[in-house]
Every structure is written in structure tokens, then in C-alpha cells.
TrEMBL record:
InterPro entries: Clathrin_H-chain/VPS_repeat, TPR-like_helical_dom_sf, Vps41/Vps8. This is VPS41 protein. SMART domains: CLH (SM00299). CHCR repeats lie at residues 6-150. It comes from the Eukaryota. Keywords: Protein transport, Transport. The keyword ATP-binding does not apply.
Length: 151
């Protein structure tokens, strides 16, 4: 099946249901990903029942679009997404998910320890507007000055 065929299926979803296409592509996960990705781009809600499946598909076949998908999906199970991202050590995605789930301290810790990115840590603390995060950032930079020499 080509990308043209995927477009044709999307253009004719009134004749061939989304569920049927997803089922037919079960043994072709890369094409299933392409189909679901294009469906999501057209309408964030039409394939919402497949958003959990899409997390794994993005992680496997299209990581650059995983974070945008996580940001744009309102139907994505955050716990499942976090589990997948942590298993694969996807730091940026994990930081985003931790923050979205209200665990800003863990997210900031990952930025500081995994990414070692001072600018990103400062920007994150600004975005969160949380005094305790600023205290964590200052404490970390005092305790670990070698990692933060560019500070």
C-alpha cells in the first residue's frame, strides 16, 4: 500500500470505516501509523480510540512527531504515554508528560540531570511559575556546580 492509498482511504472513510482500515493494517504497523498519523492531522478527534495505540506507533516509527502528538491529543492516556517514554528513555517527552501530569519537580530534575540544560531548566521554572521549583533549581546548581559551569 502506498501513501496515495492511505490518502484515498482517508478521503473515503464514509465507505471504508476507520476501524476497518486499522484492523486491516494490524500486521503492517508502519502503514497503520501513517494512516493514523494522517487521520490525526486531519481531525484530532476522529481516531481518538486509537490514540493509546498511536503512542507506541510514534515511539517506534516516528519519534519526531511523538511530542507534537502528545501535546495535541486530548484523548491520550498520560500514564501509558509516560510508561512508554520512560521505557525508551525519551527524556524530552518524559519531561513534558511529567509536567502535564503535575509532577513539575520530577520534570525539572530530569532537565537538570538528564539534559543538563541550564537554559531549559530556567525556562521551565519560568513557565511553571512555582517558587519551589526555583528553590530546587538554585539548590541543584549549588550542589552540582561542575555540571552547571556554563551557568
Amino acid at each position: 500500500m502506498s501513501l496515495k492509498a492511505v490518502d484515498m482511504l482517508l478521503d473515503n472513510e464514509d465507505k471504508i470505516s476507520i476501524d476497518r482500515v486499522v484492523e486491516e493494517l494490524e500486521n503492517r504497523p508502519e502503514l497503520q501509523h501513517v494512516y493514523l498519523h494522517k487521520l490525526f492531522k486531519r481531525d484530532h478527534h476522529k481516531g481518538q480510540r486509537y490514540h493509546e495505540k498511536q503512542i507506541s506507533l510514534y515511539a517506534e516509527y516516528d519519534r519526531p512527531n511523538l511530542l507534537p502528538f502528545l501535546r495535541d491529543s486530548t484523548h491520550c492516556p498520560l500514564e501509558k504515554a509516560l510508561e512508554i517514554c520512560q521505557q525508551r528513555n525519551f527524556v524530552e517527552e518524559t519531561v513534558y508528560l511529567l509536567s502535564r501530569m503535575g509532577n513539575s519537580r520530577s520534570a525539572l530534575k530530569m532537565i537538570m540531570e538528564e539534559l543538563q540544560d541550564v537554559d531549559k531548566a530556567i525556562e521551565f521554572a519560568k513557565e511553571q511559575d512555582d517558587g519551589e521549583l526555583w528553590e530546587d533549581l538554585i539548590s541543584y546548581s549549588i550542589d552540582k556546580p561542575r555540571k552547571w559551569e556554563s551557568f
